[in-house]
Amino acid sequence: MITWAGRALATLGAAHALAATMLGHRYFGQWFSFELWAPDADVTALPPEIGAFWMGPASFGVPLMLLGFLITWMDRRGVTPPVLLAVGLIAWTLLCAVIFEPAPWLLATSASVQLLIGIRRPIPSRRVEAGH
User: Fold this and answer.
1) Does the keyword Membrane apply (predicted)?
2) CA 2, CA 121: separation in Å to the nearest integer?
């Protein structure tokens, strides 16, 4: 269950980062020519090229993808992720879902709940049969 939660979070993060970056394709020239730097910019009124950058490659998508990969990696090695991680993800995704809908926050929340269930589920004991 933990692996599936990690995969879901990684997929959501990758999909968000890729889709939002592709939607901002018209600003690639400005991004790669260092035109985003504006020391006197008002962060509450971002120009479209800066907003597209923060919505795409600089968004939560990349860290969410990496977190999903980390959760999957931990589970494959028999390391149980901490409960605080799942609870923090649930709180964050629920808060964001309340503030900003429609968006796939509920998918991230369901993956986070799945992670919590997987963390809390007892690990079945592994018996080694003689001769195997």
Assistant:
1) yes
2) 10
Closest CA to 65 of 111, 24, 110: 111
Per-residue buried b or exposed e for 27-61, using 16+ beta carbons within 10 Å of the residue's own CB: beebbeeeebeeeeeeeeebeebbebbebbebbbb
What are the tens digits of pLDDT across the range 14-43?
Answer: 999 999 999 999 999 888 888 777 667 676
Q: How far apart are the first and last CA of the chain?
A: 27
The C-alpha angle with vertex 68 and arms to 18 and 26, in degrees rounded to 5, equals 10
Residue 113 to residue 100: CA distance in whole angstroms: 19
130 falls within a domain: no
Confirm whether 27 is domain-assigned. Answer: yes
* Six token digits for residue 70: 């980390």
pLDDT in tens, 63-85: 999 999 999 999 999 999 999 99
Domain count, the chain: 1
Question: Is residue 90 one of the residues assigned to a domain?
Answer: yes
Residue 32 lies in a domain: yes
Domain region containing 84: 2-120
